[in-house]
Amino acid sequence: MVDVAIVGFGPTGAVAAGLLGLEGLTVYACDASSEVYPKPRAIALDHEIMRIFQQLGLEREIEPHTEPFTDSEFYGVNGQLIKCMSSLPAPYPLTFVPSLVFSQPPVEAIIRKRVQQLAPVTVDLGQTCVGVVQGAQSVVLHVQDPQGQVKTVEAKYLIACDGASSTVRKMQGLDLLDLGFEQSWLVVDVLLNERGLKKTPRVSVQYCEPQRPSSYIMGAKNHRRWEISINAGEDPEQVASVEGTWALLKRWITPDDAQLWRQASYRFHALVAKSWRQGRVFLAGDAAHQQPPFLGQGMCQGLRDAQNLSWKLVQVLKGSAQACLLDTYGQERKAHVTALTERIKHIGELVGERDTSRAMARDAQLLAQCNGLVQPTPRQNVQPALSEGCLGQAASWVPNLAQVTIGTVFPQAWVLDPQTQERVRMDTVTGCGWRLFLSETADAQWDKVVLNGALNVQVFRWDAKGLQECDGVVKAWFVNHGVQAALVRPDHIVFGVYGAASEVHGLKGNHGIEGIEGDGQTLERFFITPTHRPEA
User: Of 116, 204, 253, 401, which alpha carbon lies 20 to 30 A from 148's?
Assistant: First the structure.
């Protein structure tokens, strides 16, 4: 019996397998396809995802297949600039360029190769899931090879990463909630030649035109994508034909300017699973949610799922946490995905307004809000914080900032390696476990604070004898939030922030563990001491 079985070995399934395998858990991963899909689907990722790739040891290998995401300019009814979305400036909060475009086929191949090298991970390609049977202590997966031979794999838990039409989701009777967005669009990927590169825009563009809303995205190197809305009465199949596609692209390019790489008509949806767990089976990636593509967050959301669920499975299966910790996966990810999808829907509705009078009113309102001078808005501003689930409570002595800090991503600074004094990324030094970070102004009393022993927390102080950063990113974070300490989860999410050691009191928990006031209920509910570890 393996610890975790994974159905689907796309980006979400492969990353989940990698994160679990790195922690020594045994994993079986299968996929009906034997090869990486050779054409692009996802086109954008962000610094949170690059940080996950860093955890897998892949950031240097993947970076050559990425480029910074250009600004996205929104143009209204009369061709005027009405909105602009951009990236955060340097120094970057996670060391990586915050918004990126990338080429999916080579990046996916790199991830697969890395995961297949991990000893605890068995990858079984060309295998189709034909059955899932749950028991009290395990789940049995039935898979079928191309010759029709069926075998079984028993696992303690199963993750369904098998796409939007997930077989496992249907087998488990898990329904999707419709968030109310459905539109038909043509998606076209091309590879431009020199002539085409000279003719096309130098930034990404949203054409917010009622007669046919469209998007133009600058991909990596000479890859460009158009997303073009399909009008009422048009045949999606004809629009997606070679002739139909070039007819719509003629506004920008001709067949002499580019090679078609992929064209397909889609119904864009906004869907999220009502429940992300059925017993020992979890949903992740497109099996759990689908969103319109206007911020390029589809694959990113799946990889956040993989990261969130993986560290919790590790802690439960290694006996450091109660099994109820796994319930927080769906609580946290469903709320986050739903909130972000609603924000993506808003952008999609802004771009896709079909009524000319309402579109003109939209343009006037956006221009009035900025007094006629459009200022770039960082894409990262649309990311909501995590809520509910496994998060600490804001303490009364950190009145407002704690509320906006808990559930957000803790920054990663460039630091000096304690051994070599070379400039390295912070996680390389601190690892990705539970960490308590103390600001350089944290008082000496912090040394007397005892944290919950089950968390196995490492303590890092930012000073001359501890972590030394190069660009002041973490220092600015502590100053801006007015706190002395931050307790950070293995997925880099801020669990709690604390103003001073003098306000730390002993918890009155079952085991007499001393810790940080305000987190006692959360810690005692989910985490257990080394002397009291029931079976997962």
Answer: 116
pLDDT confidence bin for 505, thresholds 50/70/90: very low
Strands 128-134 and 139-144 turn out to be: antiparallel
Residue 493 pLDDT class (50, 70, 90 cuts): very high
Indicate the fold that domain 401-526 takes in CATH. Answer: Glutaredoxin (3.40.30)
Using an 8 Å Cβ cutoff, are 31 and 141 in contact? no
Top pLDDT among 346 and 455 is at 346
Q: Note if the pTM is more than 0.90.
A: yes
Q: What is the DSSP string of 46-80?
A: EHHHHHHHHHTT-HHHHGGGEEEPPPEEEE-TTS-
Peptide bond into 89 cis (omega under 30): no
Distance between CA atoms of residues 328 and 519, nearest Å? 16
CA dihedral 502, 507, 513, 519 (to 10 degrees): -90
| Fold of the CATH domain 2-68+99-176+271-330 | FAD/NAD(P)-binding domain (3.50.50)
Q: 487 near 496, Cβ under 8 Å?
A: yes
* Three-class DSSP category at 145: coil
What is the model's pLDDT at position 518? 42
φ and ψ at 418, to 5 degrees? -60, -30
**Orientation angle between helical segments 11-22 and 47-55, nearest 10 degrees:** 40
The answer to whether the CB of 246 falls within 8 A of the CB of 255 is yes
Name all contacts of 288-291 with Cβ < 8 Å and 24+ positions apart: 288/169, 288/333, 288/334, 288/337, 289/337, 289/341, 290/164, 290/176, 291/337, 291/340, 291/341, 291/344, 291/345
CB 157 within 8 A of CB 280: yes
Residues of the chain with CATH 3.50.50.60: 2-68+99-176+271-330
d(C-alpha 408, C-alpha 495), whole Å = 9
Exposed/middle/buried for 461, CB within 10 Å: 0-12, 13-18, 19+?
middle
Structure tokens at 96: 């990586």
Whether 202 and 345 have beta carbons less than 8 Å apart is answered as no
Q: Which residues pair with residue 258 across a beta bridge?
A: 192
Asked whether the beta carbons of 454 and 320 are under 8 A apart, the reply is yes
Q: Name the segment(s) of the chain with CATH classification 3.40.30.
A: 401-526
How far apart (Å, rounded) are the C-alpha atoms in residues 299 and 41? 9
Q: Hey, which residues does 81 pair with through a beta bridge? A: 75
Tokens of 421: 């004094």
Question: 101 and 218 in contact (C-beta within 8 Å)?
Answer: yes
CA distance 27 to 487: 29
